[in-house]
Amino acid sequence: MQWTNLSEKTVYENGWFKVNRADVALPDGRHLDHFLIRLRPVAVATAVNEANEVLMLWRHRFITDTWGWEFAAGVVEDGESVETAAAREMEEETGWRPGPLQHLLTVEPSNGLTDARHHLYFADDATYIGEPTDGFESSRREWIPLKLAPDMIARGEVPAANMAAGLLMLHHLRLG
């Protein structure tokens, strides 16, 4: 069954997102108002070193009031490629400059509410360049043994779905 978006009106907008109300036609002919959030693409990056440790950030998310491990991430700026944004975010948030990035996967974490696509990348090496310029984004940055990933996710230590998917994919690629 396919729902059809007949029209949308923006009800709120800022530099980060738009909240729209869509007139949606259901397959049985009924219509409903459906609210949705339009977002810029999100670029995500990490690195895996020779010891199969993955670079992660321990951070608090005030919206859900949860702590968890994540990769560096942020929105893609106007005129910026997704890969460039991923490298920039990793450097700003961790203080590590990634080597050549490889696309890991693209996910849509909440596609019933938002059109956000999260593009995850990883590098096989990284160079420490100093303290992160966006150090306020996390309490600490650590190299975590990749072999611990499934158990960390099972214990709820990686609560964000996009990060859990990326971590499991890295685990599969490097250790599977």
Write the layout of secondary structure elements.
Layout: E1 4-13, E2 17-25, E3 31-39, E4 42-47, E5 53-61, E6 66-70, E7 72-75, H1 82-94, E8 96-98, E9 101-107, E10 118-123, E11 126-128, E12 140-145, H2 149-154, H3 161-175
Parallel strand pairs: 4-10
Antiparallel strand pairs: 1-2, 2-3, 4-7, 5-6, 5-12, 8-11, 9-10
How would you summarize what this structure contains?
This protein has 3 helices and 12 strands; from the N terminus they run E-E-E-E-E-E-E-H-E-E-E-E-E-H-H. Helices cover 19% and strands 44% of the residues.
Structure description:
By secondary structure, the protein is an alpha+beta fold. It folds into two domains: 4-39, no CATH class; 42-175, Alpha-Beta Complex (Nucleoside Triphosphate Pyrophosphohydrolase), CATH 3.90.79. 19% of the residues lie in helices and 44% in strands. The chain is built from three helices and twelve strands, in the order βββββββαβββββαα. The protein has a four-stranded mixed sheet. Strand 2 (17-25) and strand 3 (31-39) form a beta hairpin. The longest helix is centred in the C-terminal third of the chain and has 15 residues, at 161-175. It is elongated and about 55 Å long. The model has no long low-confidence stretch (mean pLDDT 95).
